[in-house]
Amino acid sequence: MCIENKKLYPNCPIISRKVVVGGLTKLQLIQKLQQHSILMNEYGERLIADDKFTTSDTKYSLQTVELTVSDLGFPNGANTTQIFKRASDLGLELCPLELAAHLRLGYLDQPEGYSGNSLQHQAPSGSITIASEILTEDDDFPKGFYLRRINGALWLRGYRADHLHIWNHDDHFIFCQT
């Protein structure tokens, strides 16, 4: 596929959402996730429990944009550094880490993802990865969150990916618009 023939951001279809972030302590945010029956995997729990995961005392709104890796100009996929750099070059920003939990609470009608066997070391079908600052280079520590709905259950899941990981062209990411 030739990049010149593909519509790239901002001239491609996007999903834009306004997300209110902040105003809750970490404990209140976790309780709210539990009240809405949001499930978390071990990586998600580890990430949200870490001292580097902080919440804002003040509520504020962010405009987000959901794009595929291909929409950013990578028809054959790319690593996280390439994806984040291209997004920055296009005027998009990384999301605060807490945005993932607030988005999960506000996006309760996410379409069902494929629940069959996911291929290891790939983003699951139907998942949306939140582009956020990576807290540590430690490959054993989660790098961020993704949203998923499987068998009717809503998930806020953490993921690990080293700097060599290649995201597929159709993997979805959420960035903040400036």
UniProtKB/TrEMBL annotation:
It comes from the Bacteria. GO terms for molecular function: helicase activity. Keywords: ATP-binding, Helicase, Hydrolase, Nucleotide-binding. This is Helicase. It comes from Viridibacillus arvi.
